[in-house]
Amino acid sequence: MHQRLHFTPSVYCVKMQGSGNDFVLLFDEDVNLPRSAMSEWARAICKRAFGVGADGLIILESAPDDPQVDYRWHFFNADGSRAEMCGNGSRCAARLAFESGFAPASHVLGTDAGPVRAEVQADSAEVAVQLTRPHELELNIRLQDSGWDRDVHSVNTGVPHAVLFSDEADHEDLGQMGPWLRYHLRFAPQGCNVNMVQPTEEGLYLRTYERGVEDETYACGTGAVAAAYIARELGYIGDNVDIITSGGERLSVSLRGEDAFLQAAATFVYQAELNCSALGL
């Protein structure tokens, strides 16, 4: 019979993934981190091969001073940058909050982008979230430099997104185009996520280059809503659409007027005892 290892110092953590976006989640009451240290923790924990490996770090904390939300989060990208919002991350946070007794099935999560309503399906792994209303919409931005000449659209769905359409999304060089747009002066100073979208018979196919991760990811929830919102504005789709991500997952987006809803599975990968000293924490 093998013995379990115990580390000192250590902290309880949960690894989750939402449509291929993976996250490490902690409870603030377990770590009691000052905000000034959270960015360092995100970089150490999210670093693949040397840490747990993830697209982002989520720290959940109670919010007794805010009657409008059940709890709040601190969300950090893998590079340590703080992000206003993450659609797939919010679904993972909501399911953990419910399964751990931190919040009821229907609750409100406080994010830097504003309150996000969540509904956890208790009989399945799916979670629906109502994102903050899309804003700052701009269509048909012609960008011509660095050898590129493309029509780009943009919208903020909690974080800023650039959206391009293509008949052959998988053949587009997102590894080059992503950084070009993410750091383009047109989207300075905060930069943007970059989405390559292809209309299909099933709905929309989506590839996303994410700032903070600085690479293409398997999915992006706010990017899926951005793609759907702009596709509706351009007349490609109606109010409801299924989006297939580059990771092969299906995200359902529902647009009700200016309100945007995202639904898909949020999956527990494992829970663990994080060896803080191994990460220099």
How is this structure best summarized?
By secondary structure, this protein is α+β, with helices and mostly antiparallel strands. It has helices at residues 28-31, 35-46, 87-99, 174-182, 221-233; strands at 10-18, 21-27, 56-62, 71-77, 106-111, 114-120, 126-131, 135-145, 148-156, 160-165, 193-199, 203-210, 215-217, 240-245, 250-256, 259-265, 267-275.
Write up what this structure looks like.
18% of the residues lie in helices and 43% in strands. With 281 residues, the protein is an alpha+beta fold. It has two domains: 10-132 and 266-279, Diaminopimelate Epimerase, Chain A, domain 1, CATH 3.10.310.10; 135-257, Roll (Diaminopimelate Epimerase, Chain A, domain 1). The protein has a 17-stranded mixed β-sheet that branches. 44% of the residues are buried.
Order of helices and strands: EEHHEEHEEEEEEHEEEHEEEE
| Tally of distinct domains | 2
- Provide the residue-averaged pLDDT: 94
Instruction: Write the CATH architecture name of the largest domain.
Output: Roll
Low-confidence stretches: none
Identify the overall geometry.
globular
The major pleated sheet works out as: 17 strands, mixed
Number of strands: 17
CATH superfamily of the largest domain: Diaminopimelate Epimerase, Chain A, domain 1
Gyration radius, to the nearest Å? 19 Å
List the total number of helices. Answer: 5
Helix content: 10-25%
SS content category: alpha+beta
Strand content: 35-45%
